[in-house]
Amino acid sequence: MLGIIGAMDEEVAKLKETMQDVTVETKASMEFYKGTMNGKEVVVVRSGIGKVNAGICTQILCDLYHVDAVINTGIAGSLNAKIDIGDIVLSTDALQHDMDATGFGYEPGVIPRMETSTFIADEKLRKLAKECCERVNPDIHVFEGRVVSGDQFISDKAKKEFILNTFAGDCTEMEGAAIAQAAYLNQIPFLIIRAISDKADDSATEDYPTFEAKAIAHSVKLVQAIVAGYANA
């Protein structure tokens, strides 16, 4: 069974419309939609914003639904000049840019007393997602790169430069690395998918409602294609 964590209510609603035999259960104030999509059992849920919500959501998917993989979709700010607004990033790995135990001698981003602080995404899921995205969303570009997460909305150029120079990330957002860490601890594969909404600074080229509608359409088509491909794998 695939666990699919969506970032936006509208996105989850669109995904739900593609499901059959849906049952809904509420846990930790989150609604989990269990059913089938393209012949594959899935659970679709909106976690809410931030790392705590994301981590709790992933753990419920593991404990209650025993998912064998987690896919997380959402939006992010670009840290890579080559990745433009509207493009999609597929995670190679994920880490937390706001984890700071430097006072104890650790490097920025390092989680004390863990074997790793950089969580590697599943290569098979990423390759499947890349092939699917190129096929169903030919109007945008798809990239593979590092997702860096923190409980901060990054809109300051100086902060953006610090995160880029310190962590070599390709995009920044607020949930992915928490989902990645929970998946790592539960020993299940994961993939973070991010549609780029901005440049993580004070620039903007498109009004947000227009971007959001396009991002939802792209994400829903991509998730459907991944599920179909995963079911046939």
Topology (elements, then pairings):
Blueprint: E1 2-6, H1 9-17, E2 20-27, E3 30-37, E4 40-46, H2 51-65, E5 69-78, E6 88-96, E7 119-120, H3 123-136, E8 142-149, H4 157-167, E9 171-173, H5 176-185, E10 190-198, H6 208-232
Parallel strand pairs: 1-4, 1-5, 5-10, 6-8, 8-9
Antiparallel strand pairs: 2-3, 3-4, 5-9, 6-7, 6-10
In CATH, the architecture is 3-Layer(aba) Sandwich
Number of domains: 1
- Average of pLDDT: 93
Number of helices: 6
Uncertain runs: none
Kindly provide the radius of gyration, computed on alpha-carbon positions and rounded to a whole number of angstroms: 17 Å
Provide the spatial order of strands within the biggest beta sheet: 5-9-8-6-10
- Report the CATH topology name: Rossmann fold
Fraction of residues in β-strands? 25-35%
Cα shape: globular
Terminal CA distance reads 13 Å
Protein name: adenosylhomocysteine nucleosidase
Pfam families: PNP_UDP_1
Keywords: Amino-acid biosynthesis, Glycosidase, Hydrolase, Methionine biosynthesis
Domain Nucleoside phosphorylase: 2-227
How would you sum up this structure, described in words?
It is a single chain. The two termini are 13 Å apart. α2 packs parallel to α5 and α3 crosses α6. This protein has helices at residues 9-17, 51-65, 123-136, 157-167, 176-185, 208-232; strands at residues 2-6, 20-27, 30-37, 40-46, 69-78, 88-96, 119-120, 142-149, 171-173, 190-198. The chain is built from six helices and ten strands; from the N terminus they run βαβββαβββαβαβαβα. The chain has one domain (1-227): 3-Layer(aba) Sandwich (Rossmann fold). With 233 residues, the protein is an alpha/beta fold. It is globular and about 50 Å long. The protein has a five-stranded mixed beta barrel, surrounded by four helices. The mean pLDDT is 93.
